[in-house]
Design brief:
Blueprint (H helix, E strand, L loop, with lengths): L2 E5 L4 E6 L4 H9 L7 E5 L5 H13 L2 E5 L2 E5 L7 E2 L1 H4 L9 H8 L1 E5 L12 H9 L3 E5 L2 E5 L7 E3 L5 H12 L4 E5 L5 H12 L3 E3 L5 E5 L7 E4 L4 H14 L1 E6 L7 H10 L2 E4 L3 E6 L8 E2 L11 H8 L5 E5 L10 H6 L3 E5 L2 E5 L8 E3 L3 H13 L3 E5 L2 H6 L3 H6 L4 E5 L1
Parallel strand pairs: 2-15, 3-14, 6-7, 10-11, 18-19, 22-23
Antiparallel strand pairs: 1-23, 1-24, 3-5, 4-5, 7-9, 8-9, 11-13, 12-13, 15-17, 16-17, 19-21, 20-21
Helix pairs in contact: 1-2, 1-7, 4-6, 5-6, 6-7, 8-9, 8-10, 8-12, 10-12
C-alpha cells in the first residue's frame, strides 16, 4: 500500500496546472449511456475514481477510448444494464448510471453504493424521484432493480439538496416524455457543467445554475464535444497549501467565479491573490490568521474544503471554530492532526481549533479523500518528517498531487 513521505518547512514557488473536476467528470462520463453517438470529452482528470467509472461503463458495452486527458465514449452497443457490487462498492458516484440506463433502456440493476466513510449518504432521494417519473423500483440483496417502459415527466421536489440525486434525475428526465420540474435542485458548478453538456447533446433544460430545473423530454440525444470544467476543490486545496507553508505560486487552468466563499476566507487568512482570466497568483509571507466558518450547500462554504482549511487553522495566530453541517463523520482527520501537535477539540458537529506555534512530523493515517489532502498540507507546514498512510483515498480525487507539489518546491515523495 502506497504512502507519502513529507518533509515540512519548504516554501512553495512556481506554477501548478489545475486538472479537470472529479465531481464534474464522473456524471459527465455516465452521460455517455444516454446516446448511441460519440461523446468526445477533454480535460478529464487522471484519477482512480475516473478509472473505476470507465471500467464500469465499459462493462455495460459502452466503448471507451482514452488518450491522456481525452476520452471518447460510444454507446451504440450497450448490452449489460447492470452495475455490479465489485465496482460500485468503492465509489458512491457509480449510482449515476441508474438514471441514464433506466431512461434509455427501460431497466437497470445497480448495487447500493459505497465510497468514503464520512457519513450517511443515502440514495432514497434518487429512488423517490425516479418513482415519480414512473419507474418501478425494488431493493433486494443489496441491489436496486428499476424498470419502466417509458419515463414520464413529473414535478419532483427532493427532501434535501443532493448533488448526485439532482444529476441522476436530470439525466433521466432528458429522455422522459413531457415536462419534468426538479425543485430544490443542487446548484453546484459541477451540476451546471453536466447540464451544459446535456444541452449540447440535444436536451432541453431551463433554469441551469438555479435550484429549479425545467426539462422538456426529447426522443433521443446525440453525441457532442465537451471540456470538463477545472477542479475548484483542487485549486482551493493548493491555495491552502501555500497559505500554510508560505511562498508564491501561480495556478493555471482555473476559474475564480465558482468558489468565491473559499477565496474570501483565504483572503481573511492573509493570502494575497491576483486574479487572471484563467489563473490565480497566490502569495503568502506571514503566519496565517484564524478563520471560522460553517459548511453548507453551494454557494456556501464547501464541505469538501473543511479539512484543508482546518489544517491551515492549526498553525494560525489564534483560535477558530469550524461547524460541519453536511456529513456527520467528517472530523476523522482531527485525531490525526492532533498527532502532529495540533490543538483541536470537537463538540458534536463543531471543531474548536487553537493555533499552535508549530506542528511536528509524525506517522498519520488518511481516513477519506479530503482528509488526505488536509494531512498533506499539515505535513508540509510541520517540522520534520511525516509519513501519511492509506493515500489511496488521495488518488481517488487528486491528479498526481505529490508530482505537482514537488514541482513547486515541496519535499514530498511516494513510497511504494
Amino acid at each position: 500500500m502506497d504512502k507519502l513521505q513529507v518533509v515540512g518547512g519548504k516554501r512553495l514557488e512556481g506554477e501548478i496546472v489545475i486538472s479537470g473536476a472529479k465531481n464534474a467528470a464522473l456524471p459527465i462520463l455516465c452521460a455517455g449511456l444516454l446516446t448511441s453517438g460519440d461523446l468526445e470529452l477533454s480535460n478529464v482528470p487522471r484519477l482512480h475514481d475516473v478509472k473505476t467509472i470507465l471500467k464500469l461503463l465499459a462493462q455495460t458495452g459502452l466503448t471507451v477510448s482514452q488518450d491522456d486527458e481525452r476520452v471518447t465514449l460510444n454507446g451504440s452497443a450497450i448490452t449489460m444494464l447492470e452495475a455490479p457490487y465489485e465496482l460500485v462498492k468503492t465509489m458512491r458516484a457509480s449510482i449515476l448510471v441508474l438514471g441514464p440506463l433506466l431512461a434509455r433502456f427501460g431497466e437497470a440493476k445497480v448495487s447500493l453504493p459505497g465510497g468514503c466513510a464520512i457519513g450517511s449518504r443515502p440514495v432514497d432521494q434518487h429512488i423517490k424521484g425516479l418513482r415519480a417519473l414512473g419507474a418501478e423500483i425494488t431493493i433486494e440483496g443489496g441491489y436496486i432493480y428499476a424498470k419502466c417502459k417509458k419515463l414520464k415527466g413529473a414535478r419532483i421536489r427532493t427532501d434535501m439538496i443532493t448533488v448526485t440525486g439532482t444529476e441522476n434525475l436530470l439525466m433521466a428526465a432528458t429522455l422522459a416524455e413531457g415536462e419534468t420540474v426538479l425543485e430544490n435542485a443542487a446548484r453546484e458548478p459541477e451540476v451546471t457543467d453536466l447540464a451544459n453538456l446535456l444541452v449540447a447533446m440535444g436536451a432541453k433544460i431551463e433554469g441551469i445554475g438555479t435550484d429549479r430545473l425545467v426539462i422538456q423530454g426529447v426522443a433521443e440525444l446525440h453525441g457532442a464535444k465537451h471540456a470538463v470544467i477545472s477542479d475548484r476543490i483542487e485549486a482551493a486545496t493548493f491555495l491552502c497549501a501555500v497559505a500554510a507553508t508560505g511562498g508564491d505560486i501561480l495556478l493555471k487552468n482555473t476559474r475564480t467565479d465558482y468558489f468565491d466563499v473559499a477565496l474570501d476566507k483565504l483572503r481573511e487568512i492573509g493570502l494575497v491573490m491576483t486574479m487572471g482570466p484563467a489563473s490565480i497568483r497566490a502569495q503568502m509571507g506571514g503566519r496565517p490568521k484564524p478563520v471560522s466558518f460553517r459548511t453548507t450547500e453551494y454557494p456556501g462554504f464547501p464541505t469538501d474544503m473543511q479539512a484543508q482549511f482546518m489544517a491551515v487553522n492549526t498553525i494560525a495566530s489564534g483560535a477558530s471554530r469550524i461547524t460541519e453541517t453536511i456529513f456527520e463523520n467528517r472530523f476523522m482527520h482531527v485525531q490525526e492532526m492532533n498527532r502532529l501537535g495540533a490543538s483541536i477539540q470537537t463538540e458534536g458537529n463543531t471543531a474548536h481549533v487553537k493555533g499552535v506555534d508549530r506542528l511536528v512530523g509524525a506517522p498519520v493515517m488518511a481516513t477519506d479523500l479530503r482528509a488526505s489532502a488536509s494531512l498533506v498540507i499539515a505535513a508540509m507546514a510541520a517540522q520534520g518528517t511525516t509519513i501519511i498512510d492509506r493515500i489511496y483515498h488521495l488518488d481517488r480525487g487528486y491528479d498526481r498531487m505529490e508530482v505537482k507539489l514537488s514541482a513547486v518546491g515541496a519535499n514530498i515523495v511516494r513510497i511504494k
